[in-house]
Hints:
By secondary structure, the protein is of the alpha+beta class. Helix content is 25%, strand content 22%. The chain folds into two domains: 100 residues, Rieske Iron-sulfur Protein (3-layer Sandwich); 250 residues, Alpha-Beta Complex (Naphthalene 1,2-dioxygenase Alpha Subunit, Chain A, domain 1).
Amino acid sequence: MTAHTVAPDTAHEAQEGWEDIDDLVRRRVPGQSLEAPFYTSEEVYERDLDVVFGRNWIFVAAAAEIPEPGDFVTVEVGAWSVILVRDDDEQVQAFHNVCRHRGSRLLPERQGSVGNIVCPYHRWTYGVDGKLMFAESQPPTFDKSCFSLRPVHVRNLVGLVFICLAQDAPEDFDAVAEVIEPHLRPYELDKAKVAVTYDLAEAGNWKLVMENNRECYHCDGHPELITAYFPLFAYEAEDITPRLKPLYDRYVKAADALAKVRADHGLPLRDHRELDTRQVGFQLSHLPLDGEGKSFAANGAAVCSKLLGSVKDAAFGDLSLHMQPNSWFHLLSDHAVVFSVLPTSTGTSTLRTTWLVHPDAVEGVDYDLDALTLVWRATNDQDRALVAETQVGCTNPGYVPGPYSMVEDDVEAFVNWYVTRLREAIA
């Protein structure tokens, strides 16, 4: 890795006097954090909802959250509300949560199960395929086929559900899915079950939550995590300091062992990093774990006795997947953890975390829920505090963008992906 060029502070003397978002985007300095208005301006927040969340594929749920026909979840993205529902053919469908009659919200609940989708206002009734089935007191010329629920683009990537709210969705999702699917397939997430889901309110702009996730420069602040997780993400051999050398030597040995296990499972051995070189930006790395190498517990011990899918070896490391703009995933031999970030205001966001286990795993028999969730509940809470302090710092008139370190390339890639989307919108 190479250090980024750092522009002098004088390049940001106009920070308090920015004129518009386009001006901010044009003067963004690569290798440095964003200017304060990107995190504090209501105008930028509205642009983010439109350009980022309104025009790109975003991760919204695990398919395991809607396992049976008629099961649904609703997702709130800014002013949008979307229904994800399993249809009678067991496919995941997505519709705007708006009645075609006079606009009433159809399903106010976060999650549930329906036979049909019935509007609570005037009882217009839709099938789980979105087709209008019943509308009382209509004239003979009324054509029900013209009033199906408005669909939303949806893709079920081996158990991970993405939507795109735009009329025309980015076309490179298929190419990315083709790369990712072989890595995900052994875990059979589409057959897994939800152990638990919880939402964490973040007192920070959604971008700060994502930037915090995209680096391990701060991982010493996660004592529960680094008992199993090597805090070396994005490090290269030349980045290793004397303090990290013993840890790095263990990492190399564990990585060699994991490569043999991956080969035995017939998995692709190549990792992928296209975080800012395409619209559906992603990174996929199959990483070793410390100690026993099995799961996120002390010394890498297992937390569930049943292995996911067709995984045969408990020491299967951590398949780490990042997807722009709002998600990351950790898949292990015995469970998976999926994360999504959704904006709720200029300075707040929601982090949703879901733990998935084998469909036959029984709580209290095959796993203990507290042990299963301990590491990421603690890590999320520690990160929540870091994000909140950064949000406060960005509102301080003394804040000016600072340089990224040599091990924060993925933060730079996230910010570059984001700024590129804004530039495209300007064009």
